[in-house]
């Protein structure tokens, strides 16, 4: 995960609204620092970092909602939608990687631990497709999926890949709609009004 961009220019004696605008502007710059990866669906890590940047901007707008202009609210909702779209894609990416591990080499290194932990969180959120206990069993180096299990996992993998492609298309379309309306300029104008 990318480290948050440092906030500069804050003043201790300035009103909260002034510092809130500085923080929000910095978080907006951070969001747009990942824009170059929007048109590449295979930049999984970079798109995840874009999601984290969207989350930081969203939370900044929420935390300072009382001191920022009301016109920030619909813009915050757009950022939240981008975050949710990218979050759904990331969830799919995690499950796809887990299924590929099940169907592949059974290398159970640190990536395996992360993926299994992420799958468990997906289950807790109610978004899981594959039971994490089943996945842990299938990822066990001593377990070889039966032909029937392998066929089911391959079908599930294809379905997840198709869903991920649809999620990416929806996200990309939304992002480009925001680009054409000059969302960045719009939010900066509201912040500095």
Index terms:
193 residues, mainly alpha, 7 helices
Structure in words:
Helices cover 70% and strands 0% of the residues. The model has no long low-confidence stretch (mean pLDDT 86). The longest helix has 34 residues, at 147-180. α3 (72-103) packs antiparallel against α6 and α4 (110-125) packs antiparallel against α5 (132-139). It has one domain. The protein has seven helices and no strands.
Structure described in brief:
With 193 residues, the protein is mainly α.
Itemize the secondary structure elements and their pairings.
Blueprint: H1 16-32, H2 44-63, H3 72-103, H4 110-125, H5 132-139, H6 147-180, H7 183-191
Helix pairs in contact: 1-2, 1-7, 2-3, 3-4, 3-6, 4-5
Radius of gyration from the CA trace? 20 Å
For the record, the count of structural domains works out to 1
Regions with pLDDT < 50 over 5+ consecutive residues?
A: none
Binned strand content: under 5%
- What is the share of helical residues? over 70%
Largest beta-sheet characterization: none
Q: Tell me the number of strands.
A: 0
How many alpha or pi helices? 7
Order of H and E elements:
HHHHHHH
CA-based shape: elongated
């Amino acid at each position: 995960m990318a480290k948050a961009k440092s906030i500069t220019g804050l003043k201790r004696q300035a009103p909260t609204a002034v510092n809130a605008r500085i923080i929000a502007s910095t978080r907006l710059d951070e969001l747009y620092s990942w824009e170059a990866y929007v048109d590449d669906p295979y930049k999984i890590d970079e798109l995840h970092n874009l999601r984290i940047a969207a989350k930081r901007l969203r939370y900044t707008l929420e935390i300072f909602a009382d001191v920022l202009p009301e016109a920030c609210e619909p813009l915050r909702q757009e950022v939240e939608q981008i975050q949710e779209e990218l979050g759904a894609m990331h969830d799919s990416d995690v499950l796809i990687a887990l299924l590929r591990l099940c169907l592949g080499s059974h290398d159970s290194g640190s990536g395996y631990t992360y993926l299994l932990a992420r799958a468990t969180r997906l289950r807790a959120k109610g978004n899981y497709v594959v039971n994490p206990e089943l996945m842990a069993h299938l990822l066990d180096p001593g377990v070889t999926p039966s032909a029937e299990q392998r066929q089911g996992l391959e079908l599930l993998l294809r379905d997840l890949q198709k869903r991920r492609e649809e999620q990416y298309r929806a996200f990309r379309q939304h992002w480009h709609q925001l680009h054409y309306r000059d969302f960045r300029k719009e939010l900066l104008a509201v912040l500095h009004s």
